[in-house]
Amino acid sequence: MSLDAAKSLLAEALLLDAGSVADDARIGSIDQWDSLAHMRLLMAIEERLGKPLDAETAAGIESVADVARVLA
Amino acid sequence: MMRRPPPPRPKLIRIETERFLLRTLMPPDASERWASWLEDLEVMAPVNTPPRRLSRPDLIRYMQRFDNISRVLIGIFDKNASNLHIGLYQLDLHPIHKTAKFNVIVGDKSYWGQKVVLETRAALLDYLFRNGTEKAIGSPLARNFPAVFNYKAQGWRLEGILKGQVQHMSSRERLDQYEFGLLKDEWLAIRKGAGK
């Protein structure tokens, strides 16, 4: 998945416009990235993957770059 | 002959944050409101506990299991809503190893996503590290995504993944659990960084 597509997915989980997510967005850098938004993000990733995330992969998702990597 | 130190005495905790009051739960806090969280699947599933109906006397008996020395039960109250009870912390404090194991439930779902845990746990960490604790521990289920987020966002270290550590409350599937840790010095560094 491209970085732009990952930003779009993250923005959807954070209920933001895609344009407001920076390339280097990560946990702590966006106020809207809270616990519920994180849950929405991981569930959206699982939906894209068509399977549950394993614990190792889920633990590593902390930034928009991680989202792109997991969905590559 | 060496004199034995006096036995530890229960400590009542009362801490205020910007939005919340944290204090030791007492028998008058046993309420229908609290009981309603325990029978709500959405609240209890993330902590892998089957929902069940408890009466007020049941809740009081439950509270009595906490000695407020090594097992501590603390309520979270919203100061801006007439000290409405919205959740609770269970802490297991090890007197020799000086660890504090955290468990938290925000029972009132209208507070989910409001950074209640980040704000209140920070205050508890300050308190515990000032009072002898040297390491904090958290062990959320890997599928408890909101809890995992809160540990990460607060700067806790993921120390390990315990594969198939516990059994699902109803399906009997084996569930993975994370082990998060936070040393006193790490927390002080986080606090110092936040103050810059």
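Chain B touches chain A at residues 112-115, 117, 142-143, 145-150, 152-153, 158, 161, 163, 176, 178 (CB under 8 Å).
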